[in-house]
Amino acid sequence: MSGKRQNHDSGSAFEAAYGYSRAVRVGETIHVAGTIGMDYAKRAISPDPAEQTRQALRNIEAALEALGASLADLVQITTYVDSAESFEAVGPVLGEVLGGVRPTNAALVVGFPFPDIKVEISGVAMVGCGAAA
């Protein structure tokens, strides 16, 4: 393994309360924690799963950029949704935002501990691989 560990915290209350980082870079690999569609500046979350997906990807993008990468460097994501119906709204947004990046994706229907959450996305990026978005 080469490279020193770099943690990135987004300021989410969850990170501090539950003892994790939004993203961790070691070498050229960045692991992004499960990220919800919370607008942390406004302390608000939309009830719409499509908008939650857009915001979650904005949150992921900010974490990647803080560690020297971008959404174009994503090679794998895992998408968690509260229902199959929510995924019908989430899937097209993933295609719209990620475009030609096309990371691998596993999608799971789960029970979230907070009722307002409709989607959560985690991922892995390889710095510099930069697929054309």
List keywords for this structure.
133 residues; alpha+beta; 6-stranded mixed sheet; 3 helices; 8 strands; 29% helix
Task: Describe the secondary structure blueprint for this structure.
Blueprint: E1 6-8, H1 13-18, E2 23-26, E3 29-36, E4 38-39, E5 44-45, H2 49-66, E6 74-81, H3 84-98, E7 104-109, E8 119-126
Protein described:
With 133 residues, the chain is an alpha+beta fold. The chain is built from 3 helices and 8 strands; from the N terminus they run βαββββαβαββ. The strands form 2 sheets. The protein has a 6-stranded mixed beta sheet with strand order 1-2-3-8-6-7, covered by helices on one side. A two-stranded antiparallel sheet has the order 4-5. A hairpin with a 4-residue loop joins β4 and β5. α2 crosses α3. The longest helix is centred in the middle third of the chain and has 18 residues. It starts with 5 loop residues before the first strand and ends in a 7-residue tail after the last strand. The mean pLDDT is 94.
